[in-house]
Amino acid sequence: MTEPTESIGKAGQAWGDAEKAEWRSRQHQQRSYADDVVAKIDALRDRFDIEQYGELDYPPEGRFPLYAIRTRDWDDALPTALVTGGVHGYETSGVQGALQFVDQHAADYKGRINLLVAPCVSPWGYERIQRWNALALDPNRNFIPASPAPESAALMALVAPLNDKMLMHIDLHETTDSDETEFRPALAARDGKPFVPGTIPDGFYLVDDSGRPQPDFQRAMIDAVAKVTHIAPADPDGTIIGSPVVAPGVIEYDCKGLGLCAGVTDARFVTTTEVYPDSPRATPQQCNDAQVAAVRAGLEYALAH
Fold first, then answer.
1. Domain limits of the chain?
2. What pLDDT shows up at residue 258?
3. Which residues touch 69 (CB under 8 Å, ≥6 apart)?
4. Segment 234-266, tens digit of pLDDT
5. Angle CA(85)–CA(90)–CA(96) in degrees, nearest 5?
6. Is 5 exposed, middle or buried (0-12, 13-18, 19+ CB in 10 A)?
7. What is the pLDDT of residues 172-189, one digit of tens each?
8. 20 to 30 A Cα–Cα from 57, which one of 113, 170, 203, 242?
9. Is the separation of the CB atoms in 272 and 173 below 8 Å?
10. Which Gene3D superfamilies match (predicted)?
11. Which pLDDT score, from 0 to 100, does residue 279 have?
């Protein structure tokens, strides 16, 4: 059985290179990016333009090409919407939901909006069912200038030329039970801080950007997803994951200030989805469907407003 992350290093002392190397040595491939993701992207080539926008080089594990899917016959006169998934590689429905949206619904928006979809931003993390990248960095805290996370830097370079046309960005995530049992303790150990237990929301919720809130946009997506899976209630103190609930199923973060993927553009309409795949009330397919419902409702709202 793998030792818990907290056993790495000394309590109260942030990790150095040796501790990070020990952590990385414990991460093992559990699924295939090539089979689960790249094969599905390749199957879309007859309908969409596929772009390799970068490549991760993590020896000895190997190289991981980064792919984006674009609307064919891109029209510079139209606005652009960005859909991202797998910023945290272990969050499966973010990846598969993005791919399902493209396969089943992206063609419906031809002539209305350009779509740019990066379905798996962190393929090393996808294969290892891991929140961090191979450098023990969280890509979703490193969308910052001169980012040390190559996953984040590559995506920023991809979207930068399109920023003035960006109308909407939806970043697809999950909140899992392993956040509390594995990843939050790992974060505390890495940073030499005490672990403070929290709670995991039972259901779907959204994270709006406190710097440019769009409550009606968020509500449109919550209403659509509620037809697919249940919406997370607030904790007794009126919060979800420690943040005040500003509307049913909605909290706010400072996306740019925290270096989150949702802050990577200046789009007017922005959200981060959070599906709860460990709920006994939700199947993996429901989680994928909830991501798709959020994207579709978000697009319709953004185009109408």
1. 5-304
2. 98
3. 41, 44, 48, 49, 50, 51, 102, 106, 115, 116, 117, 118, 119
4. 999 999 999 999 999 999 999 999 999 999 999
5. 45
6. buried
7. 999 999 999 999 999 999
8. 170
9. yes
10. Zn peptidases (3.40.630.10)
11. 96
**Exposed (0-12), middle (13-18) or buried (19+): which is 25, by Cβ within 10 Å?**
exposed
CA distance 18 to 288: 38
Give the span between the Cα atoms of 135 and 190, in whole angstroms. 12
CA separation (Å) from 70 to 51, 67, 121, 172, 270? Answer: 8, 10, 15, 17, 19
Asked if residue 42 has pLDDT above 60, the reply is yes
Q: pLDDT of 95-109, one tens digit each?
A: 999 999 999 999 999
User: What percent of the chain stands above pLDDT 90?
Assistant: 98
Phi, psi of 39 (to 5 degrees): -60, -40
Contact 3, 26 (CB under 8 A): yes
Answer whether 299's CB lies under 8 Å from 113's CB. yes
pLDDT over threshold 80, residue 65: yes
CATH 3.40.630.10 describes domain 5-304:
yes
- Centre a 10 Å sphere on the Cβ of residue 187 and count the other Cβ atoms it contains: 18
Q: What is the pLDDT of residue 4?
A: 59
| Distance, CA of 158 to CA of 241 (rounded, Å) | 31
Residues 6+ apart with CB under 8 A from 248: 222, 231
Residue carrying structure tokens 């994928």: 288
Tokens of 94: 């973010």
Contact at 8 Å (CB) between 240 and 207? no
Structure tokens that stand for 16 in this block: 């150095």
**Contact (Cβ atoms closer than 8 angstroms) between residue 126 and residue 33:** yes
- For 150, phi then psi, to 5°, come to -60, -30
